[in-house]
Amino acid sequence: MPSLPPPRVTELYYDGAWHDISSSMRESDPVTITRAATALGTRADPTAATATLDNRSGDYSPRNPLSNLYGKIGRNTPWRFSVIAGGPHLYLPPTGMYTVATPDTSALDILGDIDVRMDVALDVWDDPQLLAARYATGGNLGWALELGPDGHLFLTWSPTGASAQQRYTKSTAVVPATAGQRARVRAALDVDNGAGGCTTTFYVAFGNGPWVVLGAPVVSSGTTSLFAASAPLQIGDSDITLTPDGASGLPRAKGRIYGLQVYAGIGGVLRTNVVPAQQATAGARTFTDGTGALWTLTGAASLSNKQVRMEGEIPAWPPSRDLSGADATVQIAPAGIMRRLGSGNRPLDSALRRYIIGNAPLECWPLTDGEQATQGSPLLASTPAVSIGDPAPQWAKGAVASWIEPTLLFPAGASTQIEARPRVQGATASWSVDFVRSGLGGFEAVTVIDSGSGTNADPSTLWQLVLLAGLNQITVVRTVQLTDTSSVTTLGTIAAPGIFDSHPHHIRLSTVAGSSLTAWTVYIDGVIADGGAESGIGRPVGLIGYACDLGTDNPPPEVSLGYLTYWGDTAPDASDMYTAMMGFPGETAGARALRLSAENGVPVSLMGVAGESTELGTQEPQRYLESLDTIAAADLGVMLEQRDARALVYRARTTLYNQDPALTLDFANGEISAPFAPIDDDKLTENDVTVQRKGGASANAVRADGPLSVDAIGRYDVAPELSLAADTQTTQQAYWRMHVGTYDGLRYTKITVSLGNERAYTLVNDVLAVDVGDLIRLQNLPVDQQPGDVDLLVTGYDEEVGATAWTITYTCVPAGPWTVGVVADRTLGRADTAGSVLGSAVTPTATSLGVTTTTGPRWISTAEWPADFPFDVTCGGEVMTVTDVTGQRGDRFERSVTGGWGTATSGQAWTTTGGSSSDYSVQGG
Q1: Mean pLDDT lowest for which of 382-386, 440-444, 776-780, 886-890?
Q2: Which run of H or E residues covers position 461?
Q3: pLDDT band at residue 580, thresholds of 50, 70 and 90?
Q4: Is the CB of residue 157 less than 8 Å from the CB of residue 143?
Q5: Angle of helix 624-635 versus helix 589-599 axis, rounded to 10
Q6: What is the pTM of this model?
Q7: What are the C-alpha distances in Å from 15 to residues 2, 78, 82, 274, 308?
Q8: Among 471, 477, 458, 455, which residue's Cα sits nearest to residue 522?
Q9: 220: helix, coil or strand?
Q10: How far apart are CA 80 and CA 8, in angstroms?
Q11: Phi/psi at 352 (nearest 5 deg)?
């Protein structure tokens, strides 16, 4: 246990590097840190800290010209606070040579199935890196686990040891982690899958969550084996210089290594077990792993127990002096980046606008200018779009869709046009022109004229889409203008295009220039509607126009038009443009968090697999942080700041399920400090839940039975409105929220751990690793609270690190409802009975219980399902292990009896009716 305060490191970032200012910290004043989410399914508040700097030198006064830091610090200067405590991790620096290796031994020889697992936080997850390998030059390739240049995992091995005979598999999905994020990765090779081949399954996991298959298992033809290489086992570095596909070099790993396990057999015999936090000493150059192997570090590799508690920004440097003027301090309040990100009030642009900007068009005229506009501003440097004719179109009156900015409106009776001339820089002979529209329409024509001069030597080509609502068709026309003549060709007619209505539609005309032919394609809502090829050489676009002649019928045949966009030969797929126009409906919560953050230039990492998070509805115009709120609310995940970087983390709902405890605290051993006061109240109760899908249907779930039912305690109703992709999701959402809101148990809202307590300090690594969303398990609680272990999910914590105390107080909610069933899992795959009661009262020490199933299927028996025993059940809050189940009236007929059937296995005597006793016998065996 360290003396208080523990060794602390405080740093400021300036001049492109971190600088240690620990000597300027006032040790008499504690550093406090608060991380908190109000609840699961929300965005956490910005991390907040307080600290005191000694400023007698004047260095921490940003406007002091005599300060050594003048011009280097100011608003939002990056700040990092760490403690030196606990067991170490392996630190592999971004520069410098190193090795981390254990010598060759026969225990490392694995010839058949192999299972390699690593717990690692890489500086980057999309650069090639060697993670672990058993390899030496001279034909001694055993196996290697590698990261490819795009974030895929590789498992490489050789049946003969020769690199020329190496085999490898590549994960079908990338590791869903970002810079600095800690993740567990795994590769399991089944050398003989029973079907004439071998199978590699890659996995990923985050925190204490379960392993999730990364992509799909990779099946290779032919069985295989591994070579017993005469080679050391190395972490992060070896003589392997290329990825197995030869596509990239293979540098050393860069980051932090928390564990490496290698099994002979999938989940079989543990041959290597590296857990530095439990086995090594900070600063040492050797350590012995859990299997007795000696590991040696050389070069720049190190064992470090520096634990970052917060990285943030200092928004202000308020000076303070005592009355004498002799003492000067600065009371700083570093904050996480969400404080700064939340300072703006401007809603995000529509998903369509952001997508277009992110894909670098040659030009775009959104036509979303204000009501008093007279021309359409371009996104880039072209001239504005101008209207011609009378009456002029109405600016900011159009509504292509509610989630897209107001656009240009051509009202009923309009007979007018607009023209836009793109700049020519960067233009190509192959191009695409997009626009979005809604409305009944009448006569409309979209015209694209290339940059030809209209001469025999330099013909001008006019492409036109003629939209005829009355005929319910689109006609594609091409006109070629020469010096004295022109030719007009109808290229095609698109019947029933499905665009003359009030819904949003995306239309694209695309050309691809060849040596003598130009191919053309029309897309409607991301799907090819027509196309062909015409003679002639393509040229860049010189003018884009839209004209209409709308009638005055009822309903009004008005048209809303927006986002005239000109692309070169690298236009995004039309289907992707359509999806963007529709606001990315069906996009998962994880994918949207990543996309929106990338668009905003905010680094974010995802805990969990994006494809397993909730499918969301249309992206509405919101401020950035509000959009993150929408994501978390629908998925019931948590958006928070990364603790050791100025970045965000989205922790998806699925990572909260079925966790192993990140920290186990024994109350009886004094590992929990005061205050410790569980509450039995109704604060989290929700027994009547109606979920409304934004713009869609709703579903209701009511708890009708049990101790927290509406009849038992009254109605606690809530009605969240959520962004969901489909109406069918509302039922799932409502019942899940009712399930969580009717969990019957005490609330342990605050759990305090004092790291000045010697018994608690033995858990320091686990204590410091706990973060929002992790599970804490309480054991050996007072008998007057509730029996058995109590699992809690952390929603935040307050930490104080000072000269007199080092405490962490976790804010928690019950974790019980987050234990969910898993099909085919030995423990979590068991279905409960619909109702079971004790047949009679039992004593506290009873080891045999009579149980009656009141509803539904009966319990399994040991005779029928012997492999499924033992298993745990909870009875009156007490966890019991069931070793045998026999029917109260059951017989296995394992005995030999004549003149009757004797006594049944369950203890009752058989009686017979009819015939003589000699007619009855049992022959067991």
Answers
A1: 886-890
A2: strand 460-468
A3: very high
A4: yes
A5: 170
A6: 0.86
A7: 33, 11, 20, 37, 21
A8: 477
A9: strand
A10: 11
A11: -65, -50
